Amino acid sequence: MTRTLLLYGLLVVIASCKNNQEEVVQQDVISIDTSLSVTEGEPSIYSGQSLDSVYNCQLLVNPDSSVIFIYEWNTLWVYGEHHGAISWLHDSTYSMGLEQNYAQYIRKYWYKDSFQIWRNKEDFPELDSAEIWFESGQKLNPSYAESGIISCPIPIDSNERVQNININPHHLNPITQEPIIIGVPSRSIAEFGRGRKVEIEIIISGNTIKSTNQKPTQTGHFVLKKQ
């Protein structure tokens, strides 16, 4: 009788432990599913800034876990557009594997007699019809080299060479569907490129996304809020 009671008690303890384990596992699954709700239903859009307030950032997360991450220097001097996918790492931490789909940066240019756009012609053929103008509104007349470089002559004695320059590259922001306008400081080069890959780790907490301690891309760290 005693042995029977002991055996019965042992079975009760084992069953209780098993039920507790199942509850813990179930709670973990619920927690994970809750954080993954960002990829369920309609696309989610997050927007915000880098911590130094230099870059405006946007993130589109689609139901199939594909993402688009965009950043723009708030003076229009830099534009970066990255496409990729988001995947769960642990807890509320995710990783975005991204590839640069369209990007423009500035370089210092030491010549004073022209403005230049550097690009791979095969990657950016639409720049052949780009509109380029000074802040004053005066348009520049580009010439095209076989290398793909676009040059706009500026007389050395021209007062306008100290003005910033605007470019309409005929490219739409894929999140807002609005045309982008590039601003380039005077005596600089606009360089266009694509293909660079980057991994960005983020933490999703409610309606907020933050980059982790791992340094992200051009922007540095950022905080985004769901729209």
The major sheet is characterized as: 8 strands, antiparallel, barrel
State the end-to-end CA separation.
67 Å
Spatial sequence of strands, sheet with the most strands: 1-2-3-4-5-13-14-15
Q: Helical stretch count?
A: 1
Could you spell the SSE succession in H and E letters?
HEEEEEEEEEEEEEEE
Q: Structurally, how many domains make up the residues?
A: 2
Structural class: mainly beta
**How many DSSP E strands?**
15
The gross shape turns out to be elongated
Based on CA atoms alone, the radius of gyration comes out at 26 Å
- Helical residue percent band: 10-25%
Low-confidence stretches: 1-39
What percentage of amino acids are in beta strands? Answer: 35-45%
Essential attributes:
227 residues, 42% strand, 15% helix, single chain, mainly beta, three-stranded antiparallel β-sheet
Strand-helix topology:
Elements: H1 2-35, E1 44-50, E2 55-61, E3 66-73, E4 79-90, E5 93-108, E6 114-118, E7 131-134, E8 143-144, E9 150-153, E10 165-168, E11 182-184, E12 188-193, E13 197-205, E14 208-211, E15 222-226
Parallel strand pairs: 6-12
Antiparallel strand pairs: 1-2, 1-15, 2-3, 3-4, 4-5, 5-12, 5-13, 6-9, 7-10, 8-9, 10-11, 13-14, 14-15
Task: Describe what this molecule looks like in 3D.
This protein is mostly beta strands. It has two domains: 2-37; 41-226, no CATH class. The protein has one helix spanning 2-35, and strands spanning 44-50, 55-61, 66-73, 79-90, 93-108, 114-118, 131-134, 143-144, 150-153, 165-168, 182-184, 188-193, 197-205, 208-211, 222-226. The protein has an eight-stranded antiparallel barrel with strand order 1-2-3-4-5-13-14-15. The longest helix is centred in the first third of the chain and has 34 residues, at 2-35. The protein is elongated, with a radius of gyration of 26 Å. The model is unreliable at 1-39 (pLDDT under 50).
